[in-house]
Amino acid sequence: MDIAEWKRVFENKATKMQQQDPWQLMFDENIFPNRPNMGWKQCIGNTCATFRCSSCGRGWSSNRVMVVFHMQLRNAKGTIKIRPLHQQCKNCSDGPMEKPCIESSSIYVLMQNLVEKIRIKCYNERIELKKRHFKSYDGNSPHEPAHCQGCQLKILSSPLYNFTMITADTKRMNPKEWESIFQTKVGILNPTHVWCLMFDDSITPKAPKMGWSEYIRNTSARFTCSKCGRSWPSNRVMVIFHMRLLNGEGTVKVRLIRQNCKRCSNAPMEKPRHESDNINVLMEKLMDKIRIKCYHEDLGETNRPFIQLDVKSPHEPDHCEGCKLGICQRE
């Protein structure tokens, strides 16, 4: 992407601002959506772009490309940080995330909208936002959340993704709490790197993909049967983490191992509900593993016990997904 073109278009549009404060515009892959630093404002725009895979050379277009803007006005000087979100080739196994190529006409629309947001958020002007349409591409295939950074960071609306987010299982496990605690912990890692956490039931224990590392941890949790409503605690609940650091971007995939009700015939497997204290323990231990496996730091082992629940019945392997996968800790 040509930063000079973005600056030129922005400066042209900024003339509409009554204030003549100087503004600096820069690309910054380290800004995190929905988490601007103190004193900064955010806006996120959707546009269209083309991509090209650096592994196989395949090109594709998308009308679902998000651009994150963080902006700050301080001492009559403005700064804008821009992060266009990436997509990945669906044909390549573990293909890298690629930056979008955004046409001048779409940059033009983005900058018009950005200037309006600056006037509202930084200068506290009361103006009516105009609805501007970017030039869209003819799409021959549906949007694929698994290959979209915007979907992975949960800022891109997608019918498939929204469906996943509103299932009963995800309501019980509260993914936002996991993500919030995760983001409070990643501060100990390299500050120039960006890490995201996502739930992925498709990862296979003891078989991470090439370039990925694995960490499996036991904890405690509660379960509720969606068939009969019965609840039960367990201190034998496994959590699988697959992690990768690539080009300054870290990804952690999480799979929560399930159990099912021993009283119901053909009972569905249920996802666990973890207490906040135990999520904290999991995230602290995960940070240690990331530092060892992704940053190759030499750390001593630390013992962080989870909070055990009062369990009155023995663990039942027939109703435990971890036992069936051969990863459940046995005493």
UniProtKB/TrEMBL annotation:
**What residue ranges carry the coiled-coil annotation?**
none
Q: Which residues form the signal peptide?
A: none
Single GO cellular component term: membrane
Instruction: State the UniProt keywords alphabetically.
Output: Membrane, Metal-binding, Transmembrane, Transmembrane helix, Zinc, Zinc-finger
List the membrane topology term(s): Single-pass membrane protein
- Please, one GO biological process term? protein insertion into membrane
Q: Where is the 3CxxC-type domain?
A: 46-154, 218-326
Short name of one Pfam family for this protein? Zn_ribbon_3CxxC
The molecular function GO annotations come to:
olfactory receptor binding; zinc ion binding
Q: Where in the cell is it found?
A: Membrane
Protein name per its UniProtKB record: (Atlantic silverside) hypothetical protein
Native species of this protein?
Answer: Menidia menidia (Atlantic silverside)
